[in-house]
Amino acid sequence: MSVTETKWITGEELGRVRRRLIELGVPDDAPEFQELWRRVDERDDYLFERYGRPYMETHPGKWIAISLEGEVFLGDTATEVTWRATERVGRGNYSKRKLTASGGHELRS
Predict the structure, then answer these.
(1) Distance from C-alpha of 109 to C-alpha of 104, rounded to nearest angstrom
(2) At what angle do helices 11-23 and 31-47 cross, to 10 degrees?
(3) E strands, 6-76, where?
(4) What is the C-alpha end-to-end distance of the chain, expressed in Å?
(5) What CA–CA distances, in Å, run from 70 to 28, 35, 94, 95?
(6) Largest Cα–Cα distance in the chain?
(7) Would you state the pLDDT for residue 5?
(8) Which has fewest Cβ within 10 Å: 21, 32, 92, 104?
(9) pLDDT score, position 7
């Protein structure tokens, strides 16, 4: 079963829901936003655990972006992996982290 079959939030859905909440004047710390970010965090944690963790040993200090299908992009900077992943799979359709000893520092894409 592919990752997308588990109904992970896509970049398009994230953008659509986020825009709607902003248009409705929902504050950033409201439960609706918290639920949206929880869904993104759950997806990103799964992608990292499933596909990214092995790279911590082999590519420490690098940046990693992982698509919803498990495609991995490695680079020296967050900008580099952001550009490559966005070009290949679209904005918001990947998880991005720095591979550090603490398990990876996550940045929302």
Answers:
(1) 15
(2) 170
(3) 63-67, 72-75
(4) 24
(5) 30, 24, 9, 10
(6) 45
(7) 53
(8) 32
(9) 86
The one-letter code for the residue type at 88 is R
Name which of 89, 100, 93 is nearest 109 in CA terms.
93
Local structure of 107: helix, strand or coil: strand
Task: Say yes or no to pLDDT of 100 above 90.
Answer: no
43-48: long-range contacts, CB 8 A cutoff, minimum separation 24: 43/8, 43/9, 43/68, 43/95, 44/95, 44/97, 44/106, 44/108, 46/3, 46/8, 47/3, 47/94, 47/95, 48/95, 48/97, 48/104, 48/106
CB atoms within 10 A of CB 87: 10
Has residue 70 got a pLDDT over 90?
yes
- For position 71, what pLDDT does the model report? 98
- Chain-centroid distance, C-alpha 92: 7
Beta strands in 1-109 (DSSP E): 63-67, 72-75, 94-98, 105-107
Q: Is the pLDDT at 97 greater than 80, yes or no? A: yes
Question: Are 64 and 52 contacting, i.e. CB atoms less than 8 angstroms apart?
Answer: yes
